[in-house]
Specification:
six-stranded mixed sheet, about 30% strand
Length: about 130
């Protein structure tokens, strides 16, 4: 089965160098999302607001792929200020997932992110009927 490109108008549009997500072999691979509007303006609310916006975009992409946040098996999170933003990001992040079935996760401190964002989130999710 060839890979399938996922695209939805309900999420931040991708740049020409990547897809919003790819479906392959029963999984959805979602590209990194930062907390910005569809016209690439960073949302207000600091790292919490950006985390919410990024996860809402990811939720829309997963829905378009036939999956959902409840099917996320692995998330990678990148923070520009790990020491000060980790707890605030976690507060926003946990509201999107079942506390009894949190995805596997890695959180990494990085020097910078696109558009001056504080957080970027990418994930892999199962397709429930694959």
């Amino acid at each position: 089965m060839p890979k399938e490109v996922v695209y939805t108008l309900d999420a931040v549009p991708p740049l020409k160098t990547f897809s919003q997500a790819i479906i392959s072999k029963g999984f959805v691979y979602v590209s990194g999302n930062i907390g910005c509007t569809n016209d690439f303006q960073i949302v207000e609310g600091g790292v919490q607001g950006q985390t919410v916006a990024a996860l809402e975009s990811i939720r829309s992409i997963l829905h378009a792929a036939g999956s959902g946040l409840q099917h996320v098996v692995k998330a990678n999170i990148y923070l520009t200020n790990l020491a000060t933003d980790f707890s605030e990001m976690n507060r926003a992040y946990m509201a999107f997932f079942d506390e009894q079935a949190m995805p596997a996760r890695t959180c990494i401190g990085v020097a910078s992110l696109p558009l001056g964002a504080s957080v970027e989130i990418e994930c892999v999710a199962e397709l429930p009927d694959a």
